[in-house]
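Attaching the record inline, Q. Sequence:
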Amino acid sequence: MLNENGYVEMFTNMMSEGFIVIDSQGTIQVYNNKAKDIFGISHNQQISHEAGQIKNGDIVIIGDNAIGKDDGNLNSSSLKYIGIDDENIKKGDAIIAIGVYNVEGIKPVYLYQKSKDMTDTLKMETSFLGIDIGVVIDFINKIITIEVDKQKYTMAYINYIGHMVVLDAKTSKIKFYQSQGYTAKGESINEILKGKEYRAKGENSELLNVIGKNIFEIHKSGSTIKEFYEVAKGKNISYVDEFKEINGFPTMCTLLPVNSQKRRIGAALKVEDISEIKRVLRERDEALSNLEKIEKRLDEEREIIEAFPNIIGESKEMNYVKKLALKAAKTNSTVLIQGESGTGKNLLAKAIHENGPKKDNPFIHVNCGAIPESLLESELFGYEKGAFTGASSSGKKGFFELANGGTIFLDEIGEISSNLQVKLLQVLQDKSFYKVGGQKKIEVDLRIIAATNKNLEEEMIEGRFREDLYYRINVFPIWIPSLRERKEDIYPLVENILPKVCEKVGCENKRISAEALNLLLRYDWPGNVRELENILERAANLSEGNTILSKNLTIKVADENKYLDEEILPLREATRNFEKKIIKKVLEYYKGDKKKSMKALDISKTTFYEKIKRYNINI
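Structure, as predicted:
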């Protein structure tokens, strides 16, 4: 027959909760398997090391998310063991530190973060004494990882944790690493640094026997353990299923006195681990948060699709353009759309207007480059009767007045003369202007969208575009990328354009062959989407069947293989040739103006003349 203690051990080990009993002196009498699991005492590690003690010259690696919280009361004084003497490091700071134990002259490496300045992660990657070491404190997922020569030592935590790895001074091999249950085993960072012996790890290592030990040896301190001890001594405290934190673990505890013949002989503590529940709840909250983000993103994508059905393209670049355009549509700010000819700037401007607060009011499109300069002022601002020879006897409203309450789209704004830029600046500043030959100030409430295929910053530097006007129109800039920068949009563009082209030329719907599509993908597209429309229209006219073949496309694509056969050169020689070519082109563009050429090339005077001499360029 089993003895009484045998029955107690068998019965308590069958429990699904942790169960601890101490006598009136605080000595542990019962500590079941579940309690050992909860507090890491029965934790089996896969990486083995022998029992031992830290020695002079050992390499110490520390990752601590809050100094002094759950690391054996680590402090700046203890950090001096590894050469760190920094009075700025305070309790509660997170720290990553690597140093040599009790050896002077070897500089430690470390970084720390104040609790009030916490970011998502604190990380360090370095080679220390020839050893590759990486440490990451992940404050979001609550994990600290120390990596030594690609071997990872990971510790998860609930609130606070002090993680540590020690490498042998002579061999640089693993000598000690921190694991769950270090508080119960007396193996916190501070204790190890102060010379406390540590236990062996591995599948065959002996488990810590807690029976017969004082409760404070295993759980150090904390209000719950103090209450537990005080009840065992005779204090009348008891509770059922209360939230308590023990050794940093969130638990639900039941505390009961143990009496015999009306005399207090100890206390019992039932512990239920709720860290898993908290983890599940956290994962649920994260999942809900991610779901909300996904739903928001889907709503945004749906809104973009509905807002811009005529802006074709699902590339990353075009999706970004559409997101910006949707944001621009919801404001009254001046928008500047930039991009090469044929990228669809006018289409985007119209879409911004149609999705904005002024969508029910006029949208006036003015192509500033198509109107003669002598007429542009009167077209924009209107004129009074008799303002000039040939003027209408009743005068005329200008585009700005016609756009009142709505949007005026100034296409190719870079073509406006300097004199007219001054008057345009007044409209942007005051939303008012005078007609040609007029004395009465006309006030307007409208939105301005401008577009250009020119680099206005360069135009401004060259003195062809007013700086104050540039900053007035560049409030909400949107850059439309060229077609060659988003070739993945070619197929959806072809699918959208081809039926319209077939209808326009009066033929049955045609499809495009894979070979022809491949040719389109290889082409450089200097004319962008407008050129694609023209090429497809010509191809629809040229193709005899209902399929457009590559021979129907009037484009030429360079033979890349031939180019490589002819042009392959050593990299240094190819670089020199290209550099010489660019310098000559820039000098030709600026008609030999060396100062402007240096500025455009962004090189110093000395470098410029050295290259001129090296490449024998005539200037």
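Residues 145 and 614 are 54 Å apart (CA to CA). Residues 562-566 have pLDDT under 50 and may be disordered.

More tomorrow.
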